[in-house]
Amino acid sequence: MSTTIRTRLLKYAPIGVLAVLLLSGCQRELNDLQPVSYPTNPEVFINSFSPGLNYAAFGGSVPTAFDVDNSVTYASTSTTSMRFEVPDAGDPRGAYAGGTYFTSVGRDLSGYDALTFWMKASQPANIDVLGFGNDLGANKYQASISDVAVTTNWQKYIIPLPNPSKLTAERGMFFYSEGPEDDRGYTFWIDELKYEKLGTVAHPEHAILNGQDQVETAFLGVSKVIGGLSSTFNLPSGINQTVNVTPAYFEFASSNESVATVNASGVVSVVGGPGNATITATVGGVPAKGSLTLQSVGNFQPAPMPTRPAANVISLFSNAYTNVPVDYYNGYWAPFQTTQSADFTVNGDNILHYTDFNFVGIQFSSPTVNATAMTHLHVDIYLPNTLPANSRFKIEVVDNGTGGTGAFTTNIPVAQSQQWISLDIPFSNFAGLSNRNNLFQVIFVDEDNNIPSFYADNVYFYNAGMPPSAPTTAAPPPTHPAAGVISVFSNAYTNIAGTDLNPNWGQATVVTQVPIQGNNTLKYTGLNYQGIQLGSPQDVSALGFLHLDFWSANSTSLKVYIISPGPVETPVTLNVPTTGWSSIDIPLSSFAPVSLSNVIQLKFDGNGDIYLDNIYFRN
Amino acid sequence: MHKLRTATLHTALLLSLMFWGCKPDDFQKLPQRDWQLVWSDEFDGAAGQLPDAAKWALDLGTGQNGWGNSELQSYTNDPENVSLDGTGNLVLTALRSGNSFTSARIKTQGLFAQQYGRFEARLKTPYGPGLWPAFWMLGSNIETVSWPQCGEIDIMELRGQQPHIMQGTLHGPGYSGGNPITKGYALQNARFDTDFHRFAIEWDAAKIDFFVDDYLYQRIERGDVPGEWVYDQPFFMILNVAVGGNYVGFPTDQTPFPQKMIVDYVRVYQ
């Protein structure tokens, strides 16, 4: 018995072809009308701008970088190419060549799978960015390839369209941006720029979070952006091309919207808990690699409340202390830092939140911190991801003067993830730090590449010993020209004659004067209230400020008043306790309605032990 | 001389001829042939199994000078290089480890060989610069007369940096190595690594016909070869994925790994 295989001939026509044939000749009815669709013209620049195409140079670029070229073209069939002149570094006309080609009416690109063009250059180079989807507006579907190698020979380049079904009304046809190569400019040409349906762009692979599956704890109110987005295609030459894409190409989904939601821009918000939610994405139905599983524990757990006395603390980041000036909490140090910031506030508590963590620096250079009197660095950290293994967390403290860099590494066991960890590190443990007179950076480093993200709070230097009870240095010497000063108490000026520094108003305060570094300093011990009776009424209406220097390790309340007859008195609150000497210039307008032409007394009230110096009115 | 007979058409096909503007090459009028299935492997079996040892032997290692072609891979019998996938396919996988590569090469030498007939495989190729998959045949007398006297029929060969083009080739004495008798067949707007395609030869005393998906793209008749016609003896079949070598060039660090050739079946008819 033989098995017959009949040799077949080729494909059958689709039934639709038959249907169209049968319908021809019918009268057109309203329900035959199709919705308006956008033009599908695939040509961008062949021998000229395609109809409806405009060009705009990007800000900061050389406005005339682009022009057409009638002599250098691809193939004898082309009469004109696009020419781009990249400037030298320092060119006054602009820093780079860059611009976008966009149409006034969007085009339907959904039938194509690639933007293609031929390109060559006057020298080998790597072009920074080439892409499409830049419409000088929302750039919703912007896609690009980076660092594109161009040679002196014409070669064909392909930019795959990540998800053509989204590009039904796209106005951004092509854009480019290229800076000088090694500070020198050069020329490159593009020709036959058009969209094509190649059919040979294959094996799409999309990724969120760089393809990783991340697990982390989260809290009500925490939000973060899903990053690490890419689409990779295999080109007809068999090699892969990665395309930078926007969130708009992805469809994001949450497995449990009562715990976390995600919007079309990839912003995840934790809205419930305890419970879990997994965020995933697809591109045109193709699942993207990578996911984020949020384990929400519900309400936020704050870090332990600091207990060090303020006088012993120099704080960089804490709601419990007054922080010194900080340049930034994340330096975004290119090109190797990946760490992003997603800081948040819960119930008034500010938390630093670092994501995509490899290393990150906090800088405080204006002024730098003199931590000589401090003994430790304190920081609270919380690692929300389940650690795959014991992981080392390194902290560096950097001195801007001669002290060098000190490094300390701690091993975080898996069991300590997903809870607050308080680190108190003696300066002696920062190997390599020879002095700390001019500290200006604290740097966190993910030593084992195991810690995707962490929260930080209460970052401060402190002195673990007893708080100083008296200043060790004199108040800062005044520098204001004497001609503009009416002085109450200071070694630097002539004081108002006959002033009584301790009038008897029934106060409990004990008033003394003590020399500190040779400077006469006023001391109030056990303040409740205390007056200063000026030797004669003073007209300070022509002046602008009341200046005073004050120091207190243990006061929690301090106000200063000026008084005119009535008595009319107005307080101004001073911030205590202080870290070292505090100097303040209070605008006299703060004391309204006290009569500035007839000031007769000053008064302080509050608690604790106060040191005062350089009390004067100035212009 | 064969008489060409007009094949039967359906009505829909007739319409398609009129409204699709098809090229005349798309349609071939070939004689009806009756083939009888005599040997096959549908590769049905549990995932992870090696192919049926009654049908296939494995070539191992690097052979001589990279199997004569300066190929870079070492062939193994490890399931991660050669195994069934549990859904009716055989998967040959090329793996990269630093600068060394492993892959697999299976053959029916000593187990099955046939003179004349139709030899067909349905498969999906790997891709990427430096990948060299093949479905091919060698004369059974290779042990005695050696190559190229034994003859070689390459039913499908492909260079991974051009995944839309394959070649069908004859190597024999006087026409081997760099100057065999060969012809390429390219897909328009498609590639051989994204879908299954069928590659076949039909071979008799007068000629060898080469097919892709039933399209005859090459016919080599006895009088076409510049040397001796050595195709009147049994040949056995080989399936392999090579990495690098004189035919394809080096893989680069942009070649994606791992790479797989997925074979749905191999069928032999008389």
Largest sheet of chain B, in brief, is: 10 strands, mixed
Largest sheet of chain A: 8 strands, antiparallel
> How many beta-strand segments of chain B?
17
Overall SS class of chain B: mainly beta
> How are strands sequenced across the largest beta sheet of chain A?
2-5-10-7-8-16-15-12
Q: Count the helices of chain B. How many?
A: 3
The DSSP helix count of chain A reads: 1
Strand fraction band of chain A? 35-45%
Biggest interface pair, counts? A-B, 28 and 43 residues
Key structural traits:
heterodimer, A: 619 residues, mainly beta, eight-stranded antiparallel β-sheet, B: 270 residues
Structure overview:
The complex is a heterodimer of chains A (619) and B (270). Chain A is mainly beta and 619 residues long. In chain A, the strands form eight sheets. An eight-stranded antiparallel beta sheet of chain A has the order 2-5-10-7-8-16-15-12, with no helix packed on it. In chain A, strands 23, 24, 25, 26, 28, 31 and 33 form a seven-stranded antiparallel beta sheet that branches. Chain A starts with 14 loop residues before the first helix and ends with a strand. Mean pLDDT of chain A is 90; it is low at 1-26. Chain B has 270 residues and is mostly beta strands. Chain B has three helices and 17 strands. Chain B has helices spanning 11-19, 66-70, 142-145; strands at residues 37-41, 57-59, 73-75, 82-84, 90-97, 100-103, 105-107, 117-124, 131-139, 152-158, 165-171, 181-186, 197-203, 207-212, 215-221, 235-243, 259-269. Mean pLDDT of chain B is 89; it is low at 1-25. The A-B interface holds A 2-13, 15, 17-18, 21, 197-200, 202-203, 234, 236-240 and B 7, 9-10, 12-13, 15-16, 19-20, 22, 26-37, 127-129, 131, 160-164, 188-191, 193-194, 214, 252, 254-256, 269.
